[in-house]
Design brief:
245 residues; alpha/beta; Rossmann fold; 5-stranded parallel β-sheet; two-stranded antiparallel sheet; 7 helices; 7 strands
Length: 245
Amino acid sequence: MAEGLIDNMNPKSPRKHSGKHGGGDAPEHQTFSSAPTILGNRKPVIMISSTVYGIEELLEQIFGILNGAGFTVWMSHKGTVPVDPAKSNFENCLDAVENCDLFLGILTTRYGTGKDDETGGLSIAHREIRGALKRNIPRWFLAHHDLIFARSLIRDLGYRTADQRAKLKLTGGKLIDDLRVIDVYEEVIQAEKKLRDRRGNWAQPFATPPDANIFVLPNSCATPRRSTSSNSSPSRPYRRVRKEE
């Protein structure tokens, strides 16, 4: 996740964050009123990846916030993801991940559609998130409280790894429709690594749309610092734009 996150939290409501979701004290917040601009004055493109069921209101609000802040927002729920009619839904969504400047993933208790049920294939949302992690572009994640709670409960029952959870069979699906949503969350927070080795692993817990919205705009408008890693630079450089500009 972008290092810019570490510079932009709200001083009026300081939070302690457990190491499970990113670690450390929540730093101070700086307010930005507009999106960073790409060199050449192109609006930055932010890809929103999520399932839709149950969070339609949240998606509408996030789209409005980011669009109003000056981003080009690619969101399948709003029909703004570029579509090549010669390609499949999977291909169009993964192309969007490959061509966006920024990425916002929203993790809930729904695994998502598009998976091949006969072979146990990954959902579109899961593949989008893996694509963003692989590109190592500036990225942010929201994780619903129910997902974090369900993971903790299942771990307490002794099912701590993806292989162990694969042995379980859901019969109701009222809280979680597919246990692989926990796999997605653990990939995002880099649960397989030691705490000291995790980078870009912040997943902000939320329970309501206002919780999520507090996190979205300040962080997406912050300029992530460039990493010294050879594979971690954004695909397109951009700068932060303050209100007075």
